[in-house]
Amino acid sequence: MERLKDEVNTIKKTSNDTSDLFVLKMQPFIRKMEPAVHALQSSGRALESELRELLLYFGESIEGSEGTKPEDFFNLVLSFSRVLQVGVI
Fold first, then answer.
1. Residues 76, 58 contacting (CB under 8 angstroms)
2. How far is residue 88 CA from its own chain's centroid?
3. Whole-angstrom Cα distance, residue 24 to residue 5?
């Protein structure tokens, strides 16, 4: 979003054409979508933090190239769940 705002500002500063359609269309779009983008970014940071806590809780490595990837962890949970269901039946 910041790059888009910078681009619009650059075009506004360098262009003498006040009817530039890009600027006219993008300014309302930026005003409308900026809160949603910030909310998504905030949710993403919270999700990453909670995922790290979850991995640490289960004793998984989270650092470096050997850190457990989310997809590997959740595949392990799914496999465990399936084996547990088979064991109950």
1. no
2. 38
3. 13
Cα separations in angstroms, 54 against 32, 38, 43, 60, 74: 34, 24, 16, 9, 11
Structural contact between residues 27 and 8, judged by C-beta atoms closer than 8 angstroms: yes
How many degrees, rounded to 5, is the angle at CA 65 between CA 63 and CA 67? Answer: 45
Q: Which pLDDT does position 41 carry in this prediction?
A: 97
Measure the CA–CA gap between 4 and 30, rounded to whole angstroms: 8
Separation of alpha carbons 54 and 46, rounded Å: 12
Spatial separation of the C-alpha atoms in residues 6 and 61, rounded to whole Å:
39
| pLDDT 10s digits, 71-81 | 999 999 999 99
Give the Cα separation of 76 and 4 in Å (integer): 40
Identify the domain containing residue 31 by its residue range.
2-88
64, amino acid identity: G
